[in-house]
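User: I'm putting together a teaching handout on how multi-component assemblies are represented. Below are the sequence lines for each component of a complex, exactly as they appear in our records. Could you produce the 3D structure of the whole assembly as structure tokens, so the students can see both representations side by side? Please keep the chain order the same as the input.
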Amino acid sequence: MTIQEQYKTRVRELLSSGTVKMVIGYKAGTTADRRRPLFIRTPEEADQLLLDSACIANLSGYLIAEGLLSDEKRVGIFLKPDGIRTINILAAEAQLNIEQIIVLGFDITGQEVTALQGETAGDFSALIESIKEGAPEALKNPLIDQLEQLNPKERFAYWQAEFSRCIKCYACRQACPMCYCRRCIVDCNQPQWVNTSSHTLGNFEWNIVRAFHLSGRCVGCGNCDRACPVNIPLRLINARMAQEVLGSFDHLAGMSDTQEPVLASFKKDDSETFIL
Amino acid sequence: MRTEYPVPLAPFGQQLHTYKDCTMAKIGVFICHCGENIGAKVDCTKLAAAMGEHPGVAVAVDYKYFCSDPGQESVKKAIRENNLTGVVIAACSPRMHEATFRKACAEAGLNPYMCEIANIREQCSWVHTDPEMATEKAADITRSMVEKVKRNNKLKSIEVPVTRRALVIGGGIAGIQAALDIANAGQEVVLVEREPTLGGHMAQLSETFPTLDCSQCIMTPRMVEAAQHPKIRLLTYAEVVGVDGYIGNFHVKVKMKARYVDTESCTGCGDCITKCPNKKNSSEFDCGLGKRTAIYTPFAQSVPNKPIIDKANCTYFKNGKCKVCQKVCELNSINFEMQDEFIDLEVGAIVVATGFQVQDNSVYGEYGYGKYKDVINGLQFERLASASGPTFGKILRPSDGKEPETVVFIQCAGSRDPSKGVRYCSKICCMYTAKHAMLYAHKVHGGKSNIFYMDIRAAGKGYDEFTRRAIEDDEASYLRGRVSKVWEENGKLMVRGVDTLLGKPVVIAADMVVLATAMVPQPDAKDFAKVVGIGYDEYGFFNEAHLKLRPVESSTAGIFLAGACQSPKDIPDSVAQASASASKVLALFSKEKLEREPVVATNNETTCAGCWGCVLACPYNAIEKKDILDRSGKVIKRVASVNPGLCQGCGTCVSFCRSNSLDLAGFTEQQIFAEVMGL
Ligand SMILES: Cc1cc2nc3c(=O)[nH]c(=O)nc-3n(C[C@H](O)[C@H](O)[C@H](O)COP(=O)(O)OP(=O)(O)OC[C@H]3O[C@@H](n4cnc5c(N)ncnc54)[C@H](O)[C@@H]3O)c2cc1C
Ligand code: SF4
Ligand code: SF4
Ligand code: SF4
Ligand code: SF4
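Assistant: Of course. Below is the structure of the complete assembly, with chains in the same order as your input.
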């Protein structure tokens, strides 16, 4: 049986036994290489389920849609390791109750999809631990290294050019499961901290605020990067911040559902390299 | 676990999250010359003219000293005559006179929080040389404050109740004095000492400069008085492990370390001490010059006079066999199962009097401390000279018990030595070395004392006379210079130094060498400061709020300092500071309620995402989780809620909140934004 068929059977079981009220998975999208979210409520609806190497989107943002979990019933969801880390963060930030989530874990290497053993987020802690160990390598990116070689002026020019395309559509924000605030700072206009116009100042204000709000929280799922209609390489900023937080505070986002947010907590032995 | 905090009495109804209209503003700008301080660099008249042109400014005037009586009167008059809605005083730092001018505004009928200070002295005239540019900068600073004050809110002070009970930490002379002064004024005190007895260093001293009265004779009655005082609760062998809350309302956790002796039933008969077979433990009180048993009191006059078991050295705790003390104790007071206990205290004020330590002299390898038994430090000399000490007051060499015929004293062994010791002067060593030379002369007739010194610093009542007496009456020989090496030769300690007044190297064959060791902070001072929440300097001495004007207050409101924990001090200074702290505490307790600045955070519950980042980030535990219920009582949302009684207005939460839901009264987003845009 293919992994897709195995998981179809599993989804039908979960629904018919009443273990979950819904499973969030993937179905065919508008083009052959795109997938759409699928909300499966009955065993029959599981027929549409697809699970292949195109299922890359992080679906966890749907879990915190208004009211979905408020009846305290369980929901199943297809998650890659980055998705599992996401629900850990959402639980640590009190946005969902992790006990309500049944994880249908999978991973993609090249074209191949493999199943991950486990049912609740906690079952994957060993896997996440190994991700942390590999993180210094995994976060490396030749382009980041190249940018690091530039002097601040040149780097500024690089980002100025990239950001100049930003149309402030906030698709990056909408796509990110961590951007769950009901009112985002950019929506404040008394005072207007973040300039809405698409000029250098406004573009930097938005993208720097975004980088800070996601530092120590971004799991690198790439939702934002793919959502950006003008292809700004947001992943570079996120990965660079993740490197920084890992190096300075030994923090990788989403290790567990009780992890303290890195920017709101402190340890006595935190490095204080930023204090002059 | 969270403790319940008293809710502030005044209603907190500030509307921070709504837009503030400032088109009707009538601001008065008062530019102070501060004599020459500002006037010499900033063209105040020109500045006043420029400010007069700024939109919303009704009056802009300059004057020599606005803080003076006529100056304040002119501000009041301007407020009344022009119906001002806000005031900017362009002058010195707000730390200096914000309170002064807010009070003046209130007297003229303006809400005091409608007054702001533009600091054009410390941040402008004092740090710039070019008058033209300084004037320009002063205009920027002032304009930005005008824009801020337009958006200020009429805040109300917060009233909080005061718990009239003081905590004194440290039972040396300073702590005892503070506790007695407060208790004698009728207020309750809890006195916490971490050693098994009260007394601190003063209990170890022999006789004290400048009067040479016996330390124990003046100290022990004080200790007894403190222990028996009906208003003082004494907790010895206890440590403060947690402090939270704020002025008037501190919550303190104290660890009562297990003594293994029940102090209630024990009468202090001492049978256990006599019978304890484990007698060879080095006595801390005698600085290693004497021995004590494993169950012990530090000294015969200990308060309380109840023994403790030194767990690390007790035979039973080490080998599981012995319990001799338990067998001999007729009152069954010995309990090997005893555990540490924790006590929660509610207090309104704290006096920190944790004292000092003497520096470890082994850093001076060349002086042979730790290598030669007869090289000792000043505190050890005190024990030798003390009637209650290991030699019953006889000056005898630790190595062979012989009377030393020649003693060399080395002053500044650690003090004023940036390379190995500390940079500061320990203040007491000149005096106690003179005292030691005198005691030695009185006790060992014909004994010869040589003192190597850098300077004789003997400022104080009767102090210089005292050192002169050592030289003139007791024939102490003072040699101005440093010692470079001490070594042993034929049973003598050879001291090589230089006499800089004669310009000659000298070598003295001595029987004993006494190092006047530097006074240093307690080794755990920095960690302890973090527990209590006070600042410390580079060495670990606790910081006062203002070295000259507020020398006994720490920078945390409601926490005061006494004694050598703040800086090296002798007994008279320690006692004076302790009494000063006590009077500060009593002033605080003279009111039933305290007024607090209403600079506190508030949360916009509509936009709060309930992420609890702020709850964790708040250093004062001032943010709680609050349920928002629908009509049927069902929780529809959980949001953060700031307890204004606890909030210290630090703004940490405001900067953390991603949804921008938190705002700080007195420093609202609108105010700060306007301030920045005004530059
Ligand atoms: C060798 C020598 C000779 C001296 N001779 C003289 C003299 O002749 N005349 C004179 O005026 N001065 C003299 N002094 C100075 C005098 O000893 C000090 O001025 C005085 O002891 C300072 O008192 P204190 O209460 O501040 O500190 P301490 O005496 O050090 O007392 C502090 C107390 O606090 C306790 N403590 C510390 N940390 C904690 C904690 N975390 N919790 C609870 N309790 C704690 C300690 O156990 C101690 O009992 C001499 C000092 C030395 C070293
Ligand atoms: S910032 Fe982008 S990559 Fe990071 S978690 Fe959000 S969507 Fe994923
Ligand atoms: S998705 Fe791209 S264009 Fe849109 S706001 Fe984000 S960075 Fe700008
Ligand atoms: S940080 Fe902001 S959004 Fe999060 S709980 Fe606090 S107030 Fe609410
Ligand atoms: S301003 Fe915020 S973080 Fe600071 S004490 Fe008040 S509630 Fe806590």
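A couple of points students might notice: The longest strand of chain A covers residues 101-109. Chain A has a mean pLDDT of 93.
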